[in-house]
């Protein structure tokens, strides 16, 4: 929800790839917003991925040979995978691969979301990202009225365009 999770995941995967490591990304097939063949940031950066309903089918989908060659697995929209903890434990501890998880730890009401929080104790590092205030408010409202997020995003992006022009006075957002 505009916090930069997908941007961060994409950046991490590309830098792992640049160091010669073999990487793949899997995302939940529940997230159909931008199609199923890629993870896509809200400003349109893309990286191809596998979309799956659960993580237990990951190895079978890649095949043993493809799976064995992998060094790094990125997981997007992790909040939708019920088997996140079991997958991460097995793949990291048993198979020795690096896993980079991106997902929401809480829903729009601030309640825990899926099992993202369960993998925190077994993670080597955790980065907590938070949306800009305007997006946070709009995302909450989105679940009440789905049109509000679109208008809020448009207003915010318009305000950035105005502020980036040194000859134009910035217009404050009214909320
Ligand atoms: N420092 C930053 N880190 C991440 N995203 C940023 C940053 N500054 C601006 N952005 C913008 O915020 C948006 C974050 O989108 P995205 O990574 O898809 O978020 P999320 O996956 O959390 O919904 C993008 O439009 C990106 O360009
Ligand atoms: C806050 C919130 C989000 N969701 C869903 C909506 C999207 O499919 C993802 C969030 O994706 P993003 O990459 O962070 O934009 O989660 C939901 O179902 N319930 C919620 O409360």
UniProtKB/TrEMBL annotation:
Q: Where is the signal peptide?
A: none
| Recorded catalytic activity of this chain's protein | thymidine + ATP = dTMP + ADP + H(+)
Q: Which residues form the active site?
A: 77 (proton acceptor)
GO biological-process terms attached to the record = DNA biosynthetic process; thymidine metabolic process
Q: Does the keyword field hold Kinase?
A: yes
Single annotated GO MF: metal ion binding
Please give the superkingdom of this protein's source. Answer: Eukaryota
Entry's EC annotation:
2.7.1.21
Pfam family, any one: TK
Keyword line: ATP-binding, DNA synthesis, Kinase, Metal-binding, Nucleotide-binding, Transferase, Zinc
Q: What class of enzyme is it?
A: transferase
Q: Which family does it belong to?
A: Belongs to the thymidine kinase family.
Extract the PANTHER family matched here. THYMIDINE KINASE, THYMIDINE KINASE, CYTOSOLIC
Q: What is this protein called?
A: Thymidine kinase
**Annotated organism of origin:** Papaver somniferum
Q: Upper taxonomic classification of the species?
A: Eukaryota, Viridiplantae, Streptophyta, Embryophyta, Tracheophyta
């Amino acid at each position: 929800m505009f916090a930069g999770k997908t941007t961060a995941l994409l950046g991490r995967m590309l830098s792992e790839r640049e160091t010669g490591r073999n990487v793949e990304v899997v995302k939940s097939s529940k997230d159909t917003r931008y199609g199923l063949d890629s993870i896509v940031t809200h400003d349109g950066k893309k990286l191809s991925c596998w979309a799956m309903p659960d993580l237990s089918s990951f190895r079978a989908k890649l095949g043993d040979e493809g799976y064995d060659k992998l060094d790094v697995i990125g997981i997007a929209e992790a909040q939708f995978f019920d088997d996140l903890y079991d997958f991460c434990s097995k793949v990291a501890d048993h198979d020795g691969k690096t896993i980079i998880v991106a997902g929401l730890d809480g829903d729009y009401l601030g309640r825990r979301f899926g099992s993202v929080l369960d993998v925190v104790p077994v993670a080597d590092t955790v980065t907590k990202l938070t949306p800009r205030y305007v997006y946070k408010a709009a995302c909450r409202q989105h679940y009440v009225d789905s049109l509000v997020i679109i208008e809020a995003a448009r207003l915010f992006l318009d305000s950035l365009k105005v502020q980036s022009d040194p000859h134009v006075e910035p217009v404050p957002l009214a909320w």
